[in-house]
Design goal:
By secondary structure, this protein is an alpha/beta fold. The chain is built from 17 helices and 25 strands. Among the domains are: about 160 residues, ANL, N-terminal domain (Rossmann fold, 3-Layer(aba) Sandwich); about 100 residues, ANL, C-terminal domain (GMP Synthetase, Chain A, domain 3), CATH 3.30.300.30. The protein is globular.
């Protein structure tokens, strides 16, 4: 029989709260910088004061513990202040996806029961279009980089900096239950309205330590430390910018926030601020490595984690060519998000580039405190032989416990006590997970399954290919057949045909990598591939267009 600890009556039961992440940098790195674009910089000491001022400002407009405060902003110092002040005062931070449609936006605002909205002036037209449908919103605060307040049909409680200017720098953030909800946001699901996930203080603190152990502790190709200079290129509304602002703040590292993503500004900040660590989706990195100025820049020492979509070997090689230390991370909205990192083990660090690329593009090793399994349709574990594919399921202390106000979908997510990712993958004998497809993206042709990700990986290695998406489309004979949408590099538009790409794929058939029926029967040479609101390739839109 197990024994429980019986604490002394006077012992302090230390809760895992976000406020405690902020103590360390204020001791270790009070003079380290936080930078916003090329327009503002201040120290962690200033940041600590501003977090308290923000809490007092929110109290002055009626925010109480348990209220929900929504934020609509680009990646900024203001957003970082909200990451801390709002949950630290016992309120809930709702990070709003600024790329939602009007219908989706008002649904999330009302469904989350937002009390206050902090909105960047660039998103005023979007918010104005739904203001007459507010059900719970009591106040709106304007966020702006300009001195002049824009005209608007919204009634503002005030402008962020003006309200902050009159707020006190003294605020005693209280202790409360570590299972208190800290954040919420909405997934952009493939069908229906967005689904709300939520995370507690305990989960975010444990995720922060899990990320620290996975990123900082192991001898690998790209360890992170307090010496790094961090700039997210993932929207802060998307799974807390993968939780990295919490980690980098706890480490006291220099942080750079780029605002709106503009290639010139991103590259200017990377070079000018000597950025050494970022994370983004493949489309963003592809945009940067395709920039005409990149050959003139020294990007050696820049560590970049790719997530959100699979990292192709073609993009990985292009990044390594420019000195970018690129590798994969994996997670999803429901997992806070970090589950795995493609850390190379020490014996792999001397491998040649092609062998390293194989590992860098894998989904990765589970970080500490993450359990991963692959299971069959009945939930039975499958062998870790690198060949047997099954659905990826997981358990960690930081997974969302369900969807807000949606018991049915929550039960589906947590069937048999494991969180079901909806991804198909294999685990090899070294412990590396490799996602081979999404359940919904597997191409079912002639009774066989073809991986859309594997076909994308192959096509991406053609020198003319800039970006590629592969989907299954209706086929009278085979049920489905692969269709590839390809964006070509500059200079190849009039030189490459559909047959050239198919012939390239045939080389992989000859090597036994894919079957002949895996060659896309239709290849669309396009100038642009549809994207979702968070910059991922939208296979749903491609399927919809070409199935019609």
């Amino acid at each position: 029989m197990t024994k429980l600890i019986n604490p002394t009556k006077s012992a302090y039961d230390y809760p895992l709260l976000i406020k405690n992440l902020l103590d360390t940098p204020l001791i270790y790195s009070p003079d380290q910088e936080i930078v916003y674009r090329d327009s503002l910089r201040y120290t962690y000491k200033d940041f600590g004061k501003r977090v308290k001022k923000l809490a007092n400002m929110l109290v002055s407009i009626g925010v109480k513990p348990g209220d929900t405060v929504a934020v609509m902003d680009w990646d900024s110092h203001r957003y970082l202040e909200c990451f801390f002040a709002i949950p630290m005062m016992g309120a809930v931070l709702h990070t709003v996806n600024i790329r939602l449609t009007s219908e989706q936006l008002i649904y999330t605002i009302n469904h989350a029961e937002d009390d206050v909205i902090l909105v960047n002036e660039e998103f005023l037209p979007l918010l104005e279009s739904v203001k007459d449908k507010f059900e719970t919103v009591k106040n709106v605060v304007l966020l702006t980089d300009n001195q002049v307040q824009p005209e608007s049909t919204l009634d503002f409680a005030g402008e962020y900096e003006s309200l902050m200017g009159s707020a006190s720098e003294e605020y005693n953030f209280p202790d409360f239950n570590e299972n208190t909800m800290a954040t919420t946001f909405y997934t952009t699901g493939t069908t229906g309205l967005p689904k709300g996930v939520f995370f507690s203080h305990r989960q975010i603190v444990l995720h922060t330590y899990g990320a620290m152990s996975g990123l900082c502790a192991y001898d690998s190709q790209a360890r992170i430390s307090s010496k790094d200079i961090y700039m997210p290129i993932t929207p802060m509304f998307h799974v807390h910018a993968w939780g990295m602002p919490y980690l980098m703040t706890m480490l006291g590292a220099k942080q750079v926030y780029p605002g709106r993503y503009e290639p010139e500004m991103l590259l200017k900040l990377i070079i000018g601020e000597k950025v050494t660590y970022s994370h983004c989706v493949p489309t963003i990195l592809n945009m940067l490595v395709s920039s005409p100025v990149i050959d003139q820049l020294d990007l050696k020492g820049w560590k970049v984690i790719i997530g959100g979509s699979a990292l192709s070997k073609g993009l990985c090689k292009a990044a390594l060519k420019h000195g970018i230390n690129l590798y994969t991370g994996y997670g999803m909205s429901e997992t806070c998000p970090l589950l795995t990192l493609a850390n190379m083990k020490p014996h792999m660090l001397d491998w040649d580039e092609d062998d390293q690329v194989e590992v860098r593009c894998k989904t990765g090793l589970p970080v500490p405190n993450v359990q991963l399994e692959i299971v069959d349709m009945d939930g039975n574990p499958l062998p870790h032989d690198g060949k047997t594919a099954g659905e990826v399921v997981t358990r960690t202390p930081w997974l969302t416990q369900g969807y807000i106000k949606d018991e049915e979908k929550s039960e589906e997510l947590w069937e048999n006590g494991w969180l079901h990712t909806g991804d198909i993958g294999v685990i090899d004998s070294e412990g590396y997970l490799k996602i081979t497809d999404r359940l919904k993206d597997v191409i079912k042709t002639g009774g066989e399954w073809i991986s859309s990700l594997e076909l994308e990986d192959i096509i991406s290695q053609h020198e003319a290919v800039n970006e590629v998406a592969v989907v299954g489309v209706n086929d009278e004979k085979w049920g489905e057949s692969p269709l590839a949408m390809v964006m070509l590099n500059d200079g190849y538009q009039d030189k490459i045909s559909e047959k050239d790409i198919q012939d390239f794929c045939m080389g992989f058939v000859d090597k036994g990598v894919i079957p002949k029926y895996g060659i896309p029967s239709k290849i669309i040479l396009n100038s642009e591939i549809p994207k979702t609101s968070v910059g991922k390739i939208s296979k749903k839109d491609i399927r919809s267009t070409y199935n019609e």
